[in-house]
Amino acid sequence: MADFATGGVHQQPKGWDALRKHVLQYKIDVALWATRIATLVFTIGYFIPLFWNPYNAYYKALMANAATSALRLHQRLHPVSLTREFLMRLLTEDSCHYLFFCIIFLYVPPVTLVLLPVSLFALLHSASYSLQLLDTLGQNSWWGARLAISLVEFQSRNILRLISFSEIFLMPFTVVLILMGRAGLLTPFMYYQFLLMRYRSRRNPYTRNMFLELRALLENLANHPSAPGFVRNLIMTIVAFTCRLAPEVPAQ
Fold first, then answer.
1. 213-230 tens-digit pLDDT
2. How far is the C-alpha of 247 from the C-alpha of 237, rounded, in Å?
3. What DSSP designation does 141 have?
4. Residues near 89 by Cβ (< 8 Å), separated by ≥ 6?
5. Which residues of 111-144 are buried (b: 16+ CB within 10 A; e: fewer)?
6. What parts of the sequence cross the membrane (predicted)?
């Protein structure tokens, strides 16, 4: 009985010691997890301004996400080389896309919708890595956190679809921001370049698939027998215009 009690006492320190070793061994991965958690914390601070000014929390969330993107680029593309091939690889990375996204909106007054894709990506990736950290503490540790993580992972496909929809919806919204005097004339053009990169993404086809889903939905609405002629023509004009703007996707 005494040996059993002694083993139980020493079980938890071993878990925390394993966590410490994991942090020391995977510094960049842990730093990515920390910046993603910071993105979530500042996003919550923007919507529930208990500890920060919401204006400051908004830009801190974007800067935390920019730090995540920069760390991820360092992890995937290290070392840096000033060559055309390196630049082409850089532009295909999803982290580069969202670093560009943050730069675009750091110079625009706070827009709530901008934080949606940023915070949802942070939630997805921080949840998966949080599970790794919990595993170093032991299989039975923090069961409440494990339950919350499992719910996030169960909804991962829907979350990615929501992210892609928000990316697309932000394109016409940037034009509305100009009309409202809240964005410069270059903002839609810069965001269009971001959307092109997301459309061509090799690792994340959700934006491209969402475009196809929206096109099918709009064409079904236009071809509905009860749809007025002017509505049908307007929808088909929008679809045709959008298709002309879509880039060719290179073979995977």
1. 998 998 888 888 887 888
2. 18
3. S
4. 77
5. beebbbbbbbbbbbbbbebbbebbebbeeebeee
6. 30-52, 96-124, 168-192
In the block, residue with structure tokens 């023509």: 233
pTM across the whole model:
0.84
Alpha-carbon separation of residue 103 from 97, 148, 179, 183, 241 (angstroms): 10, 31, 21, 13, 27
Residue type, 152: V
DSSP alpha helices (H): ranges in 26-155? 27-47, 54-77, 84-92, 94-106, 115-137, 143-154
For residue range 82-120, list pLDDT tens digits in order.
788 878 887 888 899 999 999 999 988 999 999 999 999
Tokens representing residue 162 in the block: 């929501």
Q: Do 21 and 30 contact (CB within 8 A), yes or no?
A: no
Cβ pair 47, 58 in contact under 8 A: no
DSSP state of 107: T
End-to-end CA distance of the chain: 61
